[in-house]
């Protein structure tokens, strides 16, 4: 079972779309708290959903997979270290019981968890898929 992740920052639309197509993604799960910022470029909610529709890829914005505004502000302003963010966010995923939606998100699909960070190393999308893998060890994670 394949779970992919992607960040749109520093990617052209062509690179973004090609990566999704090459990995046969058929569902993009937007994990951003805010998805309407002008800074998002092609990944602004309305534009992104239209682009994905043209690619025959479904789109959902899943707030249960986003950090709280307070937590996001704390990590961006370096008020807390990554380790503390990681623990707090993982606890939040557990509290929200996001694993109960796995069948809805996965099934026979190839989902891609989206956020803005270019690389997954210090990004909540990585924490999301690693958390979900705890409930199904067959999950293979690929960061696009």
């Amino acid at each position: 079972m394949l779970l992919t992740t992607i960040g749109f920052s520093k990617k052209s639309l062509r690179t973004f779309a090609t990566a999704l197509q090459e990995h046969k993604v058929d569902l993009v799960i937007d994990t951003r708290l805010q998805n309407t910022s002008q800074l998002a470029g092609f990944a602004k909610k309305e534009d992104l959903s239209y682009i994905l529709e043209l690619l025959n890829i479904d789109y959902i914005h899943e707030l249960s997979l986003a950090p709280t505004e307070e937590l996001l502000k704390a990590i961006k302003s370096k008020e807390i270290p990554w380790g503390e963010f990681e623990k707090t966010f993982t606890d939040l995923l557990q509290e929200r019981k996001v694993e109960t939606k796995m069948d809805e998100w996965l099934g026979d699909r190839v989902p891609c968890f989206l956020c803005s960070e270019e690389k997954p190393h210090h990004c909540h999308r990585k924490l999301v898929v690693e958390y979900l893998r705890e409930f199904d060890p067959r999950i293979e994670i690929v960061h696009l």
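The domain at 2-143 is CATH 3.40.1010 (Cobalt-precorrin-4 Transmethylase; domain 1). The chain has a mean pLDDT of 92.
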